[in-house]
Structures are given as C-alpha cells and as structure tokens.
Amino acid sequence: MKSRNYSTGGPFHHIPVMLNEVLDTLALRGGNVYVDGTFGAGGHSKGILDSCKCNLLAVDRDKKSIEIAQELKKEYDDRIELHNQSFSQLPYIIDNTPYKKIDGLLLDLGISSLQLDNPDRGFSFQKDGPLDMRMGSQSFTAADILNKIREDDLAMIIRELGEERHSKLVARKICEYRKNTKIISTYQLNEIIEKSIGWSYKKQKGKHIHPSTRTFQAIRIFINQELEELILVLSRIAKYINSEGRIVIITFHSIEDRIVKNIFSDLTGQNRAISRYQPENSNENEKLFIYPIKKFLKPTDSEILMNPRSRSAKLRCIERTKSAFRENLDIYSTNKYEQILSEFR
Ligand SMILES: C[S@@+](CC[C@H](N)C(=O)[O-])C[C@H]1O[C@@H](n2cnc3c(N)ncnc32)[C@H](O)[C@@H]1O
C-alpha cells in the first residue's frame, strides 16, 4: 500500500482518516468520475485528484468547506466541481452533470475538525460558544430545540442517537433548568449534563468517555438529520454507479455503522428476506453489488497514535456488478424524527 499524507483546512487542521485505505478501496482510474460527498477540508478529495487524472464532484452542506474548496479549484480547475448541498441530493446533482453516472462515492461521515474546533459552531463541550451545531443552513439551532422540545422526545433522542443510559435523567435536568434560564451556550449544557450524570461516568474506571459526549452527539445527529441523510443517499444511489464503481463509507459510531452494514447487506443480496433491489433470479451473477473487501477495515495502530480521532473509524465498501438495475425504490423509512423536527419549522 502506498503511503500518502495530507493535512488540510488552514488554521484548523484536519487530517483525513484512513486516507491510504480510502484511495485503495476506491480503486481509482484515470478518466473516471468520483464523488466526495463529505468534502470537509478536502483531504480525501486532494488525495483522489492526485492519484490519477479523474474528475471529482465535491459536495458538502457546509458553506465554509466549499470556501476551502475554492483553493483546490484553483489547483485542479475543471477536474473538480463544487456543490454546497447535502449528499442526499446526489441523484439530482449527478442527473445535472454531463456524466449522468459515477465510478465511486466516498462518504466520511460526521463532523470535521474545522467544525469541531471552531467554538462559534457550538459542536464541542470543551469550548464555550453558542449552542448552534448546524452543519448546513437549517433554520433551527440546538438551542432552539433544547429550549422547546418535549421532555419525552428529548429523552428518546438522547437514548437512541447517543446511546446514553441515563437519557431520562439528562432530559429531566435540561427541562428543569430551562424553566428559569434559557440554554444558549455549550458550557451551560455541559454543566447541566455533568451535574446530572457526572457521577455515573466517574464510576466507569478505565473508560475515558466524557459525560457530555453521548448527549452532544445525539443532539448533533438530530439537528442535522444525519441518519435520514445517510439512509436517503444509500437507498437512491445504486442506479447512479457504473459497473465496477465502488461505494466507500467511513463511520464513527455504531448507530450509523449499523445502517451502512444493513443497507450494504440488502444491496449485495445478503438480506434475502427484505431486499427489493435484488433481481428476481438472484444467482451470483445477478447481484447488484458485491463485497470487494472482507467485512470492514480499521485504522492502523500508527494512524490512531498520530490521529486519535480516527480510533473509532470503520471503513466499509461495496462494488457495483454488471447486473442491470431493475427497480428504483426508496425502501427505507426516514420518518421517525421528521415529525418532531416539523414542529420547529
Ligand atoms: C468528517 S468530515 C469530512 C472530512 C474530509 N473527508 C476531509 O478529508 O477533510 C465530514 C464533512 O461532511 C459534511 N457532511 C456531513 N453530513 C453531510 C451531508 N448529509 N451532506 C453533505 N455534507 C455533509 C460535514 O459538513 C463535514 O464537512
């Protein structure tokens, strides 16, 4: 495996996670068209563009990322096209290009160091800032939600999207606090969480997870509809991938990894019972996708040492076969949190 290194993002450095593995599993070839659906600070995009004479559609819902991408545009000119949109919109983006189909899609999920390290974005409990947490241009912030949402809805979100065992207690304390004082900052929220469940995390010796990690993660995923975005793109993208094209996804927590694993199982015909993508006669040659690598890849120990943020990463990959695409169905429901969100619109 060739070793490449890129740190991008100007003053807020972002080191692309599993860069070598991404470039290798995408099986890049000159003349092909690739999509980086999570451009971030452009580390992976730069790696792709430097690997061969291919074309790249760079997509990010964050305006700041697309501003950074202007630098790459100067360098790679007409080989890179920028789109300040959500990756769930990829079918429309690809339909509007002359290519109509692509040879590979990369999604490196979650937030970038640019977003996490900037206190004004409100993603980090370690930096004081406005409780914002928006990746793109949604109309409501984390503060809007936290000061209004029903206690039982909040507890459900913290339990399901953060896997926080004490979700009910955290939700109750947040709702009690906001009766007297509006919650507007990351430090305020961090303090409420630490006071309510800090004791439980002190008891878990050896595990270095901060009491606020799970609740902040849950609220971020909810605000940005991260699971809905992932489900939408994966259930619509298959027919846009040329044969031998690959989908490569890096996840950072078990909730999104489970979604990727399940939908990949459907697309490769492993979940026989529920797959509606599979051609009726599903012999090996008619599968829409196959697994070119076994299960998933993890970062090497030396990468984790150099970039601790990579430690929870898992890379999964599937490859499009030559089988004809017969169905175009959005088979997964994304309505679960939609109703709660609609009350804030
Ligand atoms: C982990 S970072 C990607 C870092 C990037 N691979 C690099 O090397 O710099 C994730 C990026 O994806 C973006 N993002 C997350 N969800 C998105 C979505 N649904 N649509 C478009 N961009 C999204 C975030 O705004 C963030 O910039």
Automatic annotation (TrEMBL):
Q: What is its EC number?
A: 2.1.1.199
UniProt keyword annotation of Hydrolase present: no
Positions with a binding annotation for S-adenosyl-L-methionine:
42-44, 60, 87, 108, 115
Family matches, as Pfam families: Methyltransf_5
Task: Identify the enzyme class.
Answer: transferase
Superkingdom per UniProt: Bacteria
**Which GO-annotated molecular functions does the record name?**
rRNA (cytosine-N4-)-methyltransferase activity
Q: Which GO terms describe its cellular component?
A: cytoplasm
Biological process according to GO = rRNA base methylation
What SUPFAM superfamilies does this protein map onto?
A: Putative methyltransferase TM0872, insert domain, S-adenosyl-L-methionine-dependent methyltransferases
Q: Where in the cell is it found?
A: Cytoplasm
In terms of InterPro entries, this protein maps to:
RsmH, SAM-dep_MeTrfase_MraW_recog, SAM-dependent_MTases_sf
Enumerate the UniProt keywords alphabetically: Cytoplasm, Methyltransferase, rRNA processing, S-adenosyl-L-methionine, Transferase
The protein's annotated catalytic reaction(s) are:
cytidine(1402) in 16S rRNA + S-adenosyl-L-methionine = N(4)-methylcytidine(1402) in 16S rRNA + S-adenosyl-L-homocysteine + H(+)
* PANTHER family attached to this UniProt entry: 12S RRNA N4-METHYLCYTIDINE METHYLTRANSFERASE, S-ADENOSYL-METHYLTRANSFERASE MRAW
- Function recorded in the entry: Specifically methylates the N4 position of cytidine in position 1402 (C1402) of 16S rRNA.
Q: Which family does it belong to?
A: Belongs to the methyltransferase superfamily. RsmH family.
Q: What is this protein called in UniProt?
A: Ribosomal RNA small subunit methyltransferase H
